[in-house]
Write a structure and sequence with these properties.
6-stranded antiparallel sheet, binds methionine sulfoxide
Length: about 150
Amino acid sequence: MLATLQPKVLSIITDDSKTVDTRLGEICELLRSKVPYYDWVGFYFKNGDKEELKLGPYAGAPTDHTIIPFGKGICGQVAVSNQNFVVPDVAAQDNYIACSITVKAEIVVPLFVNGENVGQIDIDSNTPDPFSEEDERFLEFINKKVAEIL
Ligand code: SME
């Protein structure tokens, strides 16, 4: 099911008549509107030389967490672990930054450019335990394609 979105993702990413941020925003909107259990979709990127993440394009409710120090929350942990982080139940996490009380689960997949962890895609779900390996592979595919235009 997620794989059926790949052609649309590719056509957005390769449309170089638009800025990179516009294209990333369109990907967020696409994912949020087409995947029923994706309720907030956003990109965070390393903020220059600082040991922190800065919110990039996103779709869904505005969040206060536009800057996240490395190590803090699910996002900040992925910035240092370089590993996917799938959280089936956010209530069971100590090191978690709540964006909305409706969120039940979260997935964060790091984005590498030339082997360097430069950011991540972050998805919040209001559905408990919705993510599978299919989501991980799909989001890895997206990040790999995004890395080609950064
Ligand atoms: N929940 C994240 C913070 C970002 S919001 O989900 C948009 C975290 O714990 O890092």
